[in-house]
Amino acid sequence: MLKKFLMTLCLAASMGMVLSGGLLITSVAQADEAKVGPQVGKLLQDALNASKQKQNGEALAKLKAADAVSGKSGIEQLKIAEMYGYVYLQQKNYPAAAAAYERTLNSGQLTPAQTNDRIKQIAQLSFPKEVNKTIEYTTRWLKATGSKDPDMYAMLGQAYQIGGNDKAAINATEMAVRNAQAAGKRADENWLRILLKSYGKLNDAAAVSRITTSLVTLYPTKENWQLLSSALRKQAQGDDRVALNVYRLMAELDLMDEPRLFSESAIVSIQAGLPGEALKTLELGYTRKVLAADDARNQRIMNDARTRLKAQEQNLAKLEQTAAASPQGLDSVQLAEVFMSYGQTDKAVATAQQGLKKGGLPDTDDAWMLIGRADVAKKNGAEARKAFAQVKGKDLGSIARLWAIYAAKL
C-alpha cells in the first residue's frame, strides 16, 4: 500500500500537469519507504484519495493531521509539503501551492537539480499575485542555472513592471527579446507591450517609437497600428511636416476613427498648401460615417478647403511655369505634392523626379516620401519600399519605415 502510494504521488508530481500558463510540477526522488511511517503514510494516502474525489477540504484536513504527527522524518515532512502543493494546485490556489513548495525547498531533501526546478516552479506559481516573491525566485533561478530562458526573463520583467520598477522591467524584458532573437525566435507580442508601457511611463519617445515599430513589424494588427499612430502623433506635435505623413498613413490603414483626427489632418493639409488633400480627407470622414453631417466646424473647414482649392486650380498654370523656370528643385517638389493631392500620381512622380534632378533641396525626403506613396497607390509595394528607403531624416525616416512595413504587405 505504502509503495503504491509513493509511486502514485511521484507520478502525480511528474506527469507534466500543465496548469495556469504551463506550470510544470516537478518530480521529487522517491523516498526510502522506511522513512515514511505507517501513520503519516496512511494520512497521505487518504489525502490523495480525497483530492482525487475533488474533496480538497477533506484532503487538507488529513494533511493537517499528518503535520501534527510528532517526530516526523525529513522525508515525511517533504512528502506532506508535496501533497499540500498538489492539493492547492487542484484548487488553483497558486500562492498557497508556492508556499507549500517553499517548505519542500527548505527541507534539505532535494538534489541540486531538483532544487533549481523547485525554485523555478515557485517563481511561476507566485506570479502575478506575489510579484516580490516572483522577482526573488526568478532572479535566484536565473543566477543558479545561468539560463537565458526568454520566458523567465519576460516574467521577471512583467513582475518588475507590476511592482512599479519600470527601469528593471525594461532591462529584464529587453533581455528576453534579445535571447529569443539569439535563438532564432521572434519576441512575444506581450513582451513588446510590457516594454511599450514601461518606456511610455519613462517618457522615452524614441524607445516607444522603436518598440511600436517592432510591434507592427512582427504583429501587424490594427490594434498595434493604432498604438503606433497614437505614439507618432505625440512625437509629431509641433511638426506639421511629420504630422501630415502620420495622418496619411493612418488614413491608408483605416485608423482615422475619431472626428478630431479628420479635422486635424485637414487643417494640417490646408496649412501645407494642399486644400485638395484636405477636402479628400474630410470627404473620407463623411464616407466612413465618422464625421456627422451637421458638424458646423468641419463644414467650415470643408468650405475653406473648397475656396482655397478653387483659387489654387486657377493659379495652377502659373505654379507650373514657376517650377519649370526655377533652377532649384524645391518648387517642383511642392508642385508634385499638389498634383498628388489631386490624385494625379504619374504627374506627381514625374514632377518630383524633376525636382530631384535639379537639386538644391533642403533634403530629398519629401520627394521620396511622395514617390513611395504614389507607388503604394499603384499597389507597387516593392518600388514603394525602395523609395521609402531613401528617406534619411530622423523624424520622416521613422514614418517612412512604417510606410515600408505597410508596403511590404501589398
Topology pattern, helix = H, strand = E = HEEHHHHHHHHHHHHHHHHHHHHH
Quickly give the structural class.
Answer: mainly alpha
- Lateral arrangement of strands in the main beta sheet: 1-2
- The CATH architecture of the domain at 2-111 is Alpha Horseshoe
- Give me the CATH fold name of the domain at 2-111: Serine Threonine Protein Phosphatase 5, Tetratricopeptide repeat
The total count of strands amounts to 2
Mean pLDDT: 89
Task: Evaluate the radius of gyration.
Answer: 32 Å
Task: Give the C-level CATH assignment of the domain at 2-111.
Answer: Mainly Alpha
**Helical stretch count?**
22
Termini Cα gap: 68 Å
Main sheet, how many strands, which sense, barrel?
Answer: 2 strands, antiparallel
Low-confidence spans: 1-34
Overview of the structural elements:
This protein has 410 residues and is mainly alpha-helical. Among the domains are: 110 residues, Serine Threonine Protein Phosphatase 5, Tetratricopeptide repeat, CATH 1.25.40; 75 residues; 85 residues, Serine Threonine Protein Phosphatase 5, Tetratricopeptide repeat, CATH 1.25.40. Helices cover 73% and strands 1% of the residues. Strand 1 and strand 2 form a beta hairpin. The radius of gyration is 32 Å and the shape is elongated. The termini are far apart.
Please write out the topology.
Elements: H1 2-14, E1 18-19, E2 23-24, H2 38-52, H3 56-68, H4 74-90, H5 94-105, H6 112-126, H7 131-145, H8 150-162, H9 166-182, H10 189-201, H11 205-218, H12 222-235, H13 240-252, H14 259-271, H15 275-287, H16 296-314, H17 316-325, H18 330-341, H19 345-358, H20 365-377, H21 381-388, H22 394-407
Helix pairs in contact: 2-3, 2-4, 3-4, 4-5, 5-6, 6-7, 7-8, 8-9, 9-10, 10-11, 11-12, 11-22, 12-13, 13-14, 13-22, 14-15, 14-16, 15-16, 17-18, 18-19, 18-20, 19-20, 20-21, 20-22, 21-22
